[in-house]
Amino acid sequence: MALDLTHIRAETPGIDKGIHLLAAGSALMPGTVVDAVIEHTRLEAEIGGYEAQAEKADELDAVYDKIATLLGASSREIAILENATVAWCHAFYALPLSRGDRVLTCEAEYAANYVAFLQRAKRDGIVIDIVPSNQDGALDLSALEEMIDERVALIATTWIPTNGGLVNPAEGIGAIARRHGIPYLLDACQAVGQMPVNVDALGCDFLSATGRKFLRGPRGTGFLYVRGEWLETLEPAMIDHFGAPWIAHDRYRLRPDARRFETWENSYALRAGLGAAVAYALSLGLPAIKDRAWALAHGLRERLERIPGCEVRDLGKNPCAIVSFTIEGLEPEETTLRLRKAGITIGSSGPASTRLDSEARHLPVLFRASPHYYNTEEELDRLVAALLACLDS
Ligand SMILES: Cc1ncc(COP(=O)(O)O)c(C=O)c1O
After folding, report:
1. What pTM value is reported for the model?
2. Phi, psi angle pair for 114, to nearest 5°
3. pLDDT tens per residue, range 53-96
């Protein structure tokens, strides 16, 4: 189904406030998301926070169903958390890894995940092994296969990195993980909301994502998928009496679902907003969202190639809606501030957020632009014109 751009833009309050090309940072929310957050907050103000939660219990519970639909999972496999990092960490720190266990990861791994590997290397003696990339820059599946031995206790990779258009072969990794019976933790933070995601096709055991990026939800929202069979055994690293009710003086009982990773207090207004964002994405259809966002990014790369001294830095055969580039003579952090003043929002990405990749490719700070389906070709033209103007001045 083709997207009705006029309608979509009319439903996005930020559209007439400037050109926003940074869905990989924090996308523009649709009006329905803003309304859901405000309406729930207003209800809390009018009748009290606990009472608002009780009154909206069915709708708030339905947010789990929506996320499950988005991922092809079941509702009991979803935990709603405050961001993708907390979601990822809940899975990672729950896994009983011990001295000598190997964790296989990718060159594009995100900084938050990598420092957690380093902490468990220091604390628990795990070994971090990096699967090399192939000539296109994506994780090399044959190298992954060859690296597997009985000491590999986890495969943890980033699907789409924060710093560019690479799409790692998440399904291929899952197939290998399944074949060898190795747990697979997938950081899908930049994938969810810009393309279809199905946990069975991916073969992942755990998947983490955020609300505010391509999903267009409010800040401070995220979620974790935990494959059902793990709910038989997996003990969170940290629990409270919500995730694990205190059932006797000397005992607690873990909840039977993924909400064992949650705690008692939550932002129900943000949860309502997250639910509205997921519903919005589902109503448009993820295949259509992907087609348009990726086509815009492709068009942006073509335009950028025409700027003197510009180099597109994206890896992979079929890059996604994150566009990274450098322009000789323009410093990204300073230039993005200038663009911002001119009403155009893009971002920059420093080497420390993807250190393995950045060091391997000797990357400086990059420009990062990420169009979403609500952007237009004309907005891309205006970004390129503004970059050219920065070069001239
Ligand atoms: C690949 C990747 N993983 C994880 C995260 C962390 O997401 P959050 O800030 O919601 O914790 C980001 C954020 O930019 C990211 O790009």
Report:
1. 0.98
2. -65, -40
3. 999 999 999 999 999 999 999 999 999 999 999 999 999 999 99
B/e letters for 310-326, b = 16+ CB within 10 Å, e = fewer, are bebbbbbeebbbbbbbb
In short, whether 221's Cβ falls inside 6 Å of ligand 1 is: no
Angle at 357 between CA 351 and CA 360, to 5 degrees: 100
Structure tokens at 13: 């309050």
User: Which contiguous run of DSSP H or E holds residue 348?
Assistant: strand 347-349
CA of 6 to the centre of ligand 1 (A): 30
d(CA 217, CA 67): 12
Pick from 190, 210, 216, 320 the residue to mutate for probing ligand 1's pocket: most ligand atoms within 8 Å of its CB. 210
Cβ–Cβ under 8 Å, residues 166 and 135: no
Sign of the C-alpha dihedral, residues 379, 384, 385, 386? positive
Question: What values do phi and psi take at 271, rounded to 5?
Answer: -60, -40
Query: Is the CB of 187 within 6 Å of ligand 1?
Result: yes
Separation of CA 208 and ligand 1 centre (Å): 9
